[in-house]
Amino acid sequence: MLILECPCCGVKGEETEFHGGGEAHIRRFGPGSSDEAFHDYLFAKENPRGVHFERWRHVNGCGKWFHVARCTQTLEVFGSYSAQTTEPPQDIKDAITAKRPGWRWREFA
Amino acid sequence: MSEAKTALPGALFDGIAVIEEAGLQGMITLRGDLGDKALASALHDVTGCALPGPREVALAGEKGAAWMSPDELLVMVPHGETAAAVATLDARLGERHALAADVSDARVVFDIRGAYAREVLGKLMPVDFSADAFGPGQIRRSRMAQVPAAVWMTGEDAFRVVCFRSVAQYVFDLLKTAASEGGEVGLYA
Ligand SMILES: [Zn+2]
């Protein structure tokens, strides 16, 4: 079972109270970008076994969006954090490093 | 003016807990900056309640206020006073970036009472309803089977559930099934 904590309202809830919003920290490429960059933005998603960053919405609760860093293999959650950021905050990175030394995910480590 | 009617007037079920439609309740969605003193003061004017903290509900008789999200409250007043309360909130909030909307007719309210009330809710929602985890003064928004619902306590072994009017029959049927005779689990006993 995946247990998430919403950083907006503070509720700790079970997965079905939330709705997954796909990969986090996607860099957008639109008009003016190369076909390859646009293709990758649309279709080339991370699918790791291990450390992963996702967007979630507290759909049956406060309604807010937030970010989650978790392990896809064990469902362990390293932390949840604000949606209003383009990269994981340092305390989240540190929490992951403590559990998964040497982790990498896209440009973050 | 047409006569206001609830979704399931008089709906009542008596099993291991009593399930009853609570009747007309004025409900106002109030969105804005909850840190703004003017909002707290307007809320107090309308309900007599202080601003509830995160995941809290403040009740004063038929009036009250529930914390719904970091920028949203559910304001409760007697049904007949809703329009006046919205007007007061609008006037008090003035040009601020805030919204007060009468949502009374979009909702349905159920009361769940009895020694097994916690268990009836626990069967339907992914929430820990043990007395240690959930008590008076708290509000929990979550899912009841397949629909969103909010719940708080109105007394000992007494809970109030608010959900969308469009799913009133579904939620009443869920609660009836969970409260059927012989359905005791004893988890919270
Ligand atoms: Zn939340």
TrEMBL record, chain A:
Name of the protein: Sarcosine oxidase subunit delta
Molecular function as annotated in GO: sarcosine oxidase activity
InterPro entries to which the protein is assigned, alphabetical: SoxD, SoxD_sf
Any Gene Ontology biological process: tetrahydrofolate metabolic process
TrEMBL record, chain B:
One Pfam family this sequence matches: SoxG
Matching InterPro entries: SoxG, TrmE/GcvT-like
Protein name per its UniProtKB record: Sarcosine oxidase subunit gamma
